């Protein structure tokens, strides 16, 4: 009988050649073989960033087979050249019949990720979560400042960091996903539904993914991982170096090292401790809002849902 590694290598070779295993999508195999054969994701939450994907990862962690200890593999946008074997190694070898998936908010605005997913996982279910575009962009900017990814003002970051604007082009990117995947494989959600009714929100996600409904715990009902209280790092140099080292470790499947540091007191050396993040001027907020209006109107048309609350000048999140 072939070993688990030999079985995985055979599946990887077959998927690499045609995107499927034995002519069928690998995620559609019977439960009897799930513990014996590597299973590619049947769903991906493609974001965009700062829309509740960390909360969703924690909530689904006991009900779906997710990568660990790192939430995001960055396989389809950054590490595709490392091969499917590298990707599969991020998932538990035994999934007990649970759906396999990952949270991948950086895939949303990546044309490379979109095309690679369509080729490799043509039957995958995709979950989108859209948040007020101005609030989401400001939140993403704050996280990037806190992690030492940039030190510019928001005004300068808008000119120098393409991801801030690109990941807010909801309708533009959603249409491109829709051209590659049928409607029944797409679940489009709004972040405010998560805030107003988290139980209803997760029920809808579970129904779409084929996960039995469950009741959220009290601790899971509140807002998590908000960016409002984040600060600049004590030292941008140290934080940038730590972030670069973490990415280097993740690329080499040393995620447990990164997770250990994140859970230790050492993390205080790299995150927080600096000055409060700068206030954002009303002029800059209005500029972002004006730039987002066309995308919001297009998204309204796609969803058939009233987004007028996104079309009024926002307050700071």
Mean pLDDT: 83
Widest sheet: strand order? 2-1-3-4
Largest sheet: 4 strands, parallel
**CATH architecture annotation name of the largest domain:** 3-Layer(aba) Sandwich
Categorize the overall geometry.
globular
Taken in chain order, the helices and strands follow as HHEHHEHEHHHHEHHEHHEH
Counted by DSSP, the helix tally is: 14
Rg over CA atoms, rounded to whole Å, is 20 Å
Q: State the CATH superfamily name of the largest domain.
A: P-loop containing nucleotide triphosphate hydrolases
The percentage helix is 40-55%
Q: What CATH first level of the largest domain would be assigned? A: Alpha Beta
Question: Please, could you describe this protein's structure?
Answer:
With 317 residues, the chain is α/β, with parallel strands linked by helices. The chain folds into two domains: 4-228 and 284-310, P-loop containing nucleotide triphosphate hydrolases (Rossmann fold, 3-Layer(aba) Sandwich); 231-276. Helix content is 45%, strand content 8%. It has 14 helices and six strands. The chain has a four-stranded parallel sheet with strand order 2-1-3-4. It has a two-stranded antiparallel sheet with strand order 5-6. 33% of the residues are buried.
């Amino acid at each position: 009988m072939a070993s688990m590694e030999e079985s995985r290598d055979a599946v990887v070779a077959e998927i690499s050649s045609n995107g499927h295993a034995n002519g069928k999508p690998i995620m559609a195999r019977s439960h009897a073989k799930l513990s014996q054969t590597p299973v590619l994701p049947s769903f991906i939450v493609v974001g965009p960033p700062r829309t509740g994907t960390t909360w969703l990862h924690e909530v689904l962690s006991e009900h779906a087979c997710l990568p660990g200890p790192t939430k995001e593999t960055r396989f389809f946008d950054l590490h595709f050249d490392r091969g499917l074997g590298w990707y599969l190694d991020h998932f538990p070898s035994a999934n007990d019949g649970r759906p396999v998936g990952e949270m991948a908010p950086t895939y949303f605005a990546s044309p490379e990720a979109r095309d690679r997913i369509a080729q490799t996982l043509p039957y995958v279910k995709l979950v989108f979560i859209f948040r007020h575009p101005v609030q989401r962009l400001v939140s993403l900017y704050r996280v990037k400042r806190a992690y030492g990814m940039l030190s510019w003002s928001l005004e300068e970051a808008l000119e120098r960091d393409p991801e801030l604007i690109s990941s807010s082009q909801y309708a533009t990117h959603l249409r491109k996903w829709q051209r590659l995947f049928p409607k029944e494989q797409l679940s489009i959600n709004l972040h405010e539904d998560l805030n107003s009714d988290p139980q209803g929100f997760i029920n809808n996600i579970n129904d779409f993914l084929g996960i039995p409904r469950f009741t959220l715990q009290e601790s899971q009902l509140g807002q998590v991982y908000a960016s409002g209280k984040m600060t600049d790092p004590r030292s941008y140099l140290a934080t940038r170096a730590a972030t670069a080292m973490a990415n280097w470790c993740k690329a080499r499947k040393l995620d447990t090292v990164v997770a250990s540091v994140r859970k230790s007191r050492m993390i205080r050396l790299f995150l927080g401790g600096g000055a409060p993040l700068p206030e954002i001027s009303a002029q800059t907020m209005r500029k972002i809002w004006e730039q987002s209006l066309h995308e919001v109107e297009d998204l309204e048309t796609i969803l058939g849902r009233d987004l007028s609350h996104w079309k009024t000048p926002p307050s700071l999140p």
